[in-house]
Amino acid sequence: MTRTSATWRTPTVVIAVGCLTALLLFGVRAGFGLFLEPMSRELGWGREVFAFAIALQNLLWGLGQPFAAALADRYGSGRVLAVGGLLYGVGIMLMAQSTTPLLFNLSAGVMVGLGLAGASFAVVLAAISRRVPEDKRSWALGVGTAAGSLGQFLMVPLGQSFLSAYGWSMALVLMGICALLIVPMAGALAGKADSAGQGREQSLAEALREAGGHPGYRYLTGGFFVCGFHVAFIQTHLPAYLADVGIRPGIAAWALALVGLFNVVGSYTSGVLGGRFSKKYLLSLLYLVRAAVIAVFVLVPVSEVTVLVFAAAMGLLWLSTVPLTSGLVAQIFGPRYMATLFGIVFFSHQVGAFLGVWLGGYLFDVTGSYQMVWWVSVALGVLASLLQWPIDERRLPRLTEAEAV
Question: In degrees, to the nearest 5, what angle opens at C-alpha 288 toward C-alphas 282 and 291?
Fold first, then answer.
C-alpha cells in the first residue's frame, strides 16, 4: 500500500478503474486488424505496409514499457497513464489522416506505440498489485486481465460497426475518442509503492541486477516472447487470412470478439488457479495447448464453424499468461519494482509481437500464404512450454527474511 494514496483510492476503486482502463486499452487496439484489408486496398498499399506499422507499434510499445514502468514506480502510475492515454487516443485519430506509409508509421507505429507503453498492463497491473493483499493478488491480476479481454469483445464489434457505417477514416476517429477516456481515469490509479515488507531499501539498479541473475526471470522473458508472437500475428492477420479463404468480414470481427469474450473466462480462471497451484506449470500447459489449437486449426478445412471454435479456444488461452507471468514476477521479486521488472518481460513479448506481425505481412507478400507463419507459431508454442518448466518460483530469501522480522 502506498503512503501517499488518497483515502478514496480503495482496493475496490483501484481494481474497478484499472479494469476500465484495460478494457479501453486492449479493446480499441484489438480491432486494428479490421482496417488492414480496406486501408491497404483503398490506399494501394501491400499488406506489409500496414503490418510493418503495427509491428513498429508493438516494438515501441515494448521498448517504451520498461521506461514508462520505471517512471510509474518512481513517480506514481497516474501521470504516466494520463500521458500514455493522450498519445494513444490522438495517435489513433491521426491514423485516419495518414494517406502515406510514412505518416501511417508515425501515427500508428510511433504515437500509438508510445501511448500504449504509458497506459499498458505493466503500469495498470502494478497499481492494482500495490493496493491488494498478497493472498488476493493473483485473483485481482486475473480480473484486470479479464477486463482487457472484455474490452476486445465489446470494442471489436463496435469498431466493425463504425467501419461499416462510416468508412475506415471516421471509424478510426471515433475509436480514438474512446481511447482518450483513459486520461480522466488516470487519477484513480495515482500513487507509488513503498518498500514496506521488502527488506532493506533496494535501488532500481539492484533490482535489475537481481532479476537479471535469476534464471527463472530469463525463462519467463523467453516464454512471453512467444506469447507476443502468437497474439499479435493472429489479431492483426486473422481477418485478412479469413477474407483470403472466402469467409465474410462479419465473421472475422466476431472471431476477434469471441477471443475477447472467452479470454474473460480464461484470464479470470488463470488468476484464480494461479493462487492455488504452481504458476510455472500452468504456464507450461497453456503454451502447449496453444500450439495444439493452432496446429488443429491449420490442418482442418476452414469454415465459419471452425473459425469460431478456434477463436473460442484461443480466447481461453489468449491473455491467460498475463496474470501468471506478472504474478510470478511479484511472487519471486516482490511488488516494489514489479512495474519495471514486468515491463522488461513485456518488452520481450512485444519483440515477439513485432516479428509475428511483420513476418505475417512479409511472408504473405512473398509467398501469397500465411502457412509458414502458422507452423512457426506451433513450434514456438512447444518451445515456450519447455522454457517454463525449470523456473524456480520460490520467493527470494530477502523477502522471506523481511517477513520474519
Answer: 145
Sort 203 into a burial class: Cβ within 10 Å, 0-12 / 13-18 / 19+. exposed
Place of cell 506505440: 113
Cβ(168)–Cβ(38) below 8 Å: yes
What pLDDT digit, counting tens, does each position of 236-245 carry? 888 888 888 8
- What pLDDT, in 10s, does the model give residues 164-205? 888 888 999 999 999 899 888 877 776 655 544 444 566 778
> What pLDDT is stored for residue 177 in this prediction?
92
Contacts of 84 (CB under 8 A, 6+ apart): 68, 114, 115, 116, 117, 118, 119, 120, 123, 182
CA distances from 326 to 58, 122, 124 (A): 19, 8, 11
CA–CA distance, 51 with 389 (Å, rounded to integer): 33
Question: What does the pLDDT average to over 217-236?
Answer: 89
Q: How far apart are the first and last CA of the chain?
A: 19
DSSP classification of residue 6:
-
Q: Has residue 23 been placed in a domain?
A: yes
All three cell numbers of 24: 479501453
Task: Evaluate whether 266 touches 319 at the Cβ level (below 8 Å).
Answer: yes
Residue 386 forms part of a structural domain: yes
Measured CA to CA, the distance from residue 51 to residue 58 in angstroms comes to: 11
Q: State the pLDDT at residue 185.
A: 82
Closest among 15, 36, 5, 9 to 360, alpha carbons compared: 36
In angstroms, the CA 18 to CA 72 distance is 14
Number of domains present in the structure of the chain? 1
Residue 1 resides in a domain: no
Domain that holds residue 292: 11-191+203-393
According to the model, what pLDDT value does residue 5 have?
47
